[in-house]
User: Fold this.
Amino acid sequence: MKFKSTTLTPKALLYKRFISLEKSLTLNAVYKTYDNLLWGFDSVNLIFYSIDPTNAPPLSNITEISSSSVYLQYLTTYFHYEPTGWVATTTLPSTYSLLSAKFGNIARYQLNKYYYVGSFDYMLKGAISGTTVQYVKGNITPLSSLNIKYFNDDLKLSVDDLVVINGKLYSVENPEEDHKHQPKDYTVYFATLNSVL
Assistant:
């Protein structure tokens, strides 16, 4: 028979990792329209976004858009500013002033984030071991490692998940499954947890 609870140890909290794509914008290419608003250009989505004047760069980096007849070109698209906002087009009128659209080094980067999944019962398997590791030269940090056993089929630990036990944070390493067939089929789960400072 599969165990439904453990020896009354506090529950462990599980956090799963996901990757968030973030966008970084710099203010080295700013446009000031004739109504005194500041704009930056997003070359990925081909849109202009508003910039807070308190975050504006020095005046030497600002390009003045003096009228709606000033067009900005990026690849095969032209943009001009009207009182209702920026308008994109693929054709130019008979009278226009053309500038090249500059953008503020838009970069995308990945950021690891975690979300709470739930709690589960566990049992310690063996002793808690302690040692020191040196992830960065000269930075020696203590590391405690423990092995756990649990029976919850709804929460499966994966490498890079985080687990909180007794207020301490651990990373998951080496998850295992052991399938039992007596008296009926069930699975016992094992994992090694390493402390995270």
